[in-house]
Amino acid sequence: MRPHLLLLPFCAAITAHAAPLPPFTTGPTLNGPVRELRLAAAPDGALVLAVASDDARVSSGRGTFVGRLLTAWQSTPPASTWTPLGDGTPLNYDRPRPVSSLNLALDARGTPVLVWNENYGDNDVVVMRAWRGGAWTDWRARYLGEDLTYAARTLSVAARSGEPVLAWGDTLRGGGSRLTIRTWDGRTWARGEPFNDVTRFSRAPALALDAAGRPVVAWLQGDVLASDVLAKRWTGATWEALGGPLNRTPSTYVAATRLALDTRGTPVVAWLEDVSGADTLRASRWNGRTWTPIGGDVSSPGAASPSLALDPSGRAVLAWVEERAGVGQVRLARERAGGWEQFGILNRDAARDARSPSVTADASGHVTVAWREDVGGTYRALLRRFPASP
Predict the structure, then answer these.
(1) Pick from 57, 118, 176, 340: CA 20 to 30 A from residue 237's CA?
(2) What is the pLDDT of residue 118?
(3) Region class of 222: left (phi > 0), else alpha (psi between -120 and 50), else beta
(4) CATH tag, 14-386
(5) Where do the domains of the chain lie?
(6) C-alpha span between 388 and 312 (Å, rounded)
């Protein structure tokens, strides 16, 4: 993220949430600090939580590094206990390789699919597993290892029939980049037609699948300080553009594209956009002809790490981080009456650093937010569960 130059007063149309926050609960007990987490709700209401946490220090022969462990857990609200998916054995293949760029997606039946990056020395690979038939798949032979410096930053994951579907980026010789949908065909990773302008620098794809399994994508295109948020959907034969740029100011600094579809396949996109030198969270919905803003600005200037979900009525829910004096504060807003209902700071302790929010909404409309927070000097997974919106 570039430096924030100026913080302006927050002037979005908002409604402050009057009721007290629901109590926080703790995630699974882990030996080391939590570094990344992802949360998703299955159709039956069960929550799936994937966590990358620190392990021991390890020597690679070129120096020491901290290994990481990837684990996955399940909980059935209103209970707040977590049980491992599987026997509790860490899921990264080549421990003690560090784990990063963690992705979690559930298919229509609730099958969890995990995709992450493993790194050791000069070797980088994107690897994956799925929870199928009561066990985790061993898909290490499916690894993707091309152009990983760029691809690890240019990856989005959806799931269909227990299989990962990837939005994947490659840099091209002579300039430009290529964003495509990749699926496993039984032998290799098949690549679809590019959905971006391959002569332009493109990044930060977001991917969702409609009820027929067809991809809908949003991404950033253009030079870093002069980019646009764009979106397309696959018709079954070609990529169809969904209007023009979504950003309120064309050709500006934008970041962190997020995308979700409602039950009718209508896309909602959220992103960070420069407002007088500071990153501000915004969102829009496709109405069939054009993109319509959802309320005003979702956040105060200085937002980061947004996470987007839709409730069963298709209303947007966003979690993000705002940093104050070097301390991250996790916040939540829910779409309501054409604006945003703001829930304030979710941290267990607003004076302790909190990062990596992940929000999900279940079929009953309950919204759960997970994040990692400094608790006594160690980052732990914390959650809050909110009732359905009236």
Answers:
(1) 176
(2) 87
(3) left
(4) 2.120.10.10
(5) 14-386
(6) 9
